[in-house]
Design the sequence.
């Protein structure tokens, strides 16, 4: 029962982050399942089955708050589904001993990307209103879908920053569109896992509690995306993913690190993680202060222009 409650809370927290940041539901949930010893393919299959419900709820919530660009959903979602099916069948054919470290490496890479991306650069702004072309979105969807299925997460970490970096649609619509299109990816990946490993290795009780937690969090996250600082959240989530997957790798048969090496590694990661979060908070406050100053200057300029017109 404790495990189910914990999984429900993880599903809630992961969807809260995913719906606010446009990434990390699969990465966070799969990381936990691997940490408690779940088979790599079964962990990814469990998360993707739960995501069928959570992404549907998240997509509906984002639609309600007008956070979705449906053209982007169509152009990236279908190639993403193709990539996810291919990734699921690929992972299903790897041995258990090989799959777990491989998945942890993918998750670790994604975690590092999230941490660096949001800590160092925040959200890019510029090029708003320019169209996103299919020749950019289709390959991106194919790659993100494949990584998502093989890594148990990755649709958001690959897709969201790439579209954000283009600066062509508002961040809230990037996040909403990625979450909505992930519904197609989750279905395709689940079908791929059923073909590859069947259903006997999947604990449907775990699927259910992850789903329930995610569905409860979805509307809250869709509302929060307008208010929560993505830069700070990205630093927090990225560090957590790195720490957890380094732990998995250090304890794997590939490395078998001693207790001392593990301790030093965890301390080093924790120091970097805390530093990244502190830096993100400082830069977020600096950006807000700059925006306030620019808004005041703009307002003063507007008033001066009106006064000149009145006096003339």
Sequence:
């Amino acid at each position: 029962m404790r495990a189910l409650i914990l999984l429900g809370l993880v599903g809630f927290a992961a969807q809260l982050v995913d719906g606010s940041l446009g990434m990390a539901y699969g990465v966070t949930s799969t990381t936990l399942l691997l940490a408690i010893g779940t088979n790599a393919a079964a962990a990814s299959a469990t998360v993707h089955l739960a995501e069928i419900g959570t992404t549907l709820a998240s997509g509906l919530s984002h639609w309600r708050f007008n956070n979705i660009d449906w053209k982007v959903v169509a152009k990236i979602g279908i190639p993403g589904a193709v990539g996810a099916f291919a990734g699921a069948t690929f992972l299903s054919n790897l041995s258990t001993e090989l799959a777990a470290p491989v998945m942890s490496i993918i998750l670790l890479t994604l975690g590092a990307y999230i941490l660096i991306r949001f800590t160092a650069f925040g959200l890019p702004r510029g090029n708003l209103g320019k169209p996103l072309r299919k020749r950019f979105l289709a390959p991106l969807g194919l790659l993100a879908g494949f990584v998502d299925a093989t890594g148990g997460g990755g649709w958001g970490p690959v897709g969201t920053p790439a579209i954000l970096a283009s600066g062509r649609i508002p961040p809230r619509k990037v996040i909403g569109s990625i979450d909505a299109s992930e519904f197609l990816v989750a279905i395709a990946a689940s079908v791929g896992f059923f073909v590859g490993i069947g259903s006997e290795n999947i604990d449907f009780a775990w699927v259910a509690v992850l789903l329930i937690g995610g569905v409860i969090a979805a509307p809250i996250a869709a509302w929060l995306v307008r208010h929560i600082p993505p830069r700070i959240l990205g630093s927090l989530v990225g560090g957590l993913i790195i720490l957890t997957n380094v732990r998995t790798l250090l304890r794997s048969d590939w490395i078998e690190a001693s207790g001392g090496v593990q301790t030093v590694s965890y301390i080093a990661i924790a120091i970097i993680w805390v530093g990244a979060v502190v830096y993100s908070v400082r830069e977020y406050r600096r950006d807000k202060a700059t925006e306030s100053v620019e808004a005041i200057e703009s307002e003063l300029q507007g008033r001066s222009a009106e006064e000149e017109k009145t006096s003339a």
The two ends are 77 Å apart (CA to CA). The mean pLDDT is 78.
